[in-house]
Amino acid sequence: MTRFLPLAALAFLASCNTGPELVPLGVSGGASRTDTIYRTEFVGRFSPSPICQGQELQIEFAPESVYLGETGCNIAGTRRISNGVALELVGCRAEGAAQADRTLSVTRAGSGALQVSGGGVDSTVQPCLD
Predict the structure, then answer these.
(1) Residues 82/109, Cβ–Cβ less than 8 Å
(2) Could you tell me the pTM of the whole model?
(3) Given its phi and psi angles, is residue 110 left (phi above 0), alpha (psi -120 to 50 degrees) or beta?
């Protein structure tokens, strides 16, 4: 019986999950193709000028949220549109006050620039270099 106990303990420990199951590199981990396109092609900081500091309009596309100047919103959904994505933004807040939900269309405008429209914005923006 005492010889069996260490073997049983070893078998039990081997069957335990020792950590999170990681997704292999290059696989989107359950994210939709549109989410993957958004995260790989659009995430970053943008403004009308490549020098963002001092610009009135600055947009930051993060994996789970978007910041339009002082307004931050959570991304509830993404859908594919011609040459880009549409982001369904919810839970928007500016300076602590709730703001209306909105849909933001983000499309490629060439040379790394993006055309952003919706939610009170209609502008071509460049990636920030600063």
Answers:
(1) no
(2) 0.73
(3) left
Residue extents of the structural domains in the chain: 29-127
Using CA atoms of 84, 62, 65, 39 in order, give the dihedral in degrees to the nearest 10. Answer: 40
Give me the sign of the Cα torsion angle 36, 88, 74, 58: positive
Asked whether 105 and 118 are in contact (CB, 8 A), the reply is: yes
Distance, CA of 11 to CA of 65 (rounded, Å):
44
Assess whether pLDDT exceeds 50 at residue 28: no
* E strand or H helix at 115: strand 113-118
DSSP annotation string for 21-82: PPPPTTS-TT--HHHHHHHHHT-EEEESSS--TT-S--EEE-SSEEEETTEEEEEEEEEEET
> What is the SS3 assignment for 91?
strand
Across the range 107-120, mean pLDDT stands at: 93
CB distance 121 to 57 below 8 Å: yes
